[in-house]
Design a protein that fits this description.
There is one protein chain. With 354 residues, the protein is α+β, with helices and mostly antiparallel strands. The strands form three sheets. A five-stranded mixed sheet has the order 3-2-1-5-8. A five-stranded mixed sheet has the order 4-10-9-6-7. It has ten helices and twelve strands. The longest helix has 40 residues. Helix content is 43%, strand content 18%. Helix 3 runs antiparallel to helix 4. It binds dinuclear copper ion (CUA).
């Protein structure tokens, strides 16, 4: 009995103070924001699109107005405290503490007129921004249909005869229409540097437009919790000059070779068409026409694997094909039971699908 009390006190003193929870939690949560495939985490504070710039302008106006109000209120508060103290110390300064008319003036001006003016300005600016975000500065020429799946993005260009996945190509400086649907639950399409998010709602068509102003590769994310692999539901946006975009269109709209040229690729195709791959994946130009998983016709040209989870290279692909549940537990891709030779041939074949 004698020992327990000091031991208990010791334990108490070793506990962290409660206020430390905030910085520690912030640190832990900031570690979560790391994108899975590489370190290029998108930054909404660094806009590279027309819509992103409108949002950022709105943010800074509200930030600086809020800062100005905060500093003004703090300055008045400090002044009042100072004056009250001075009055208490020397009540004969000639300042009358009981001036009801002056008090009411403060209530009218500081409590009603100024807030109404400031909030009206912010409201007016927000309505302007919302209107600017609703319609693109020029009519869109290209429509891209994006369908959310748990946990990947199907991408179609109906006018250009292109089907791909987890990667969107657009010409720089042109407004593009994105039509958003979902195959299962609610997802949210978000390119932090380019545009605000738009939800994908079952049974409903939502649309947004994007206009990328600087060429580059931008990471997009799913911004609505949609299950186990929500955090690995990314996509890449490749924005390139018109000519480069057209080159991509030409390549992406063409089918794959029905029969590959060299023997190893033929053996790999044989593996693809004789095991479970073709049930779920399509390779246009061959007999593989599954629609459960991503279209693989130009798989080798894509930057990432498994919806932005990893860089698209042979090593990662081998691991992904053999044991997808280890990398992305809960995804629909089943593990495969291939011999070393079959796997090598399959990897080679997939790497020829440029
Ligand atoms: Cu899809 Cu979160």
């Amino acid at each position: 009995m004698q020992d327990t009390a000091p031991a208990h006190r010791n334990q108490m003193s070793r506990e962290l103070p409660k206020w430390l929870a905030v910085p520690i939690l912030t640190l832990i949560l900031s570690a979560c924001s790391q994108a899975p495939a590489n370190r290029t985490t998108p930054n909404a504070m660094d806009p590279k699109g027309f819509g992103g710039r409108i949002v950022m302008g709105e943010f800074w106006i509200q930030f600086w107005m809020g800062t100005a109000v905060f500093l003004t209120v703090m300055a008045i508060l400090i002044y009042i405290i100072y004056r009250q103290r001075a009055n208490r110390r020397a009540p004969d300064l000639g300042i009358d503490l009981h001036e009801p008319e002056k008090g009411m003036l403060w209530v009218w001006v500081g409590g009603i007129i100024v807030p109404v003016v400031i909030l009206s300005i912010i409201f007016g600016l927000s309505v302007g921004s919302a209107r600017a975000l609703a319609t693109p500065p020029e009519p869109e020429q290209i429509t891209i249909e994006v369908t959310g799946h748990r946990w990947w993005w199907e991408v179609r260009y109906p006018q250009l005869n292109i089907v791909t996945a987890n990667e969107i190509h657009v010409p720089v400086g042109e407004a593009v229409r994105i039509e958003l649907r979902t195959n299962d639950v609610i997802h949210s399409f978000w390119l932090p540097e380019i545009m605000i998010k738009t939800d994908l709602i079952p049974g409903q068509l939502n649309a947004q437009w994007i206009l990328v102003e600087e060429p580059g590769v931008y990471r997009g994310v799913c911004a609505e919790f949609c299950g186990l692999q929500h955090a690995r539901m990314h996509f890449m946006l490749v924005a390139e000059p018109r000519e480069r975009f057209e080159e991509w269109v030409e390549k992406a709209s063409s089918p794959a070779q029905a029969v590959p040229d060299d023997e190893l690729a033929q053996a790999g195709q044989e593996v693809f068409l004789s095991t479970s791959c073709f049930y779920c994946h399509q390779i246009r130009g061959t007999s593989a026409s599954g629609s459960v998983g991503p279209d693989l016709t130009h798989f080798a040209s894509r930057l990432t694997l498994a919806a932005g989870s990893m860089e698209n290279n042979i090593g990662n692909l081998g691991g992904w094909i053999l044991d997808p549940q280890h990398i992305k537990p809960g995804s629909l891709m089943p593990p495969t039971d291939l011999t070393g030779e079959e796997l090598q041939a399959l990897l080679y074949y997939l790497s020829t699908l440029e």
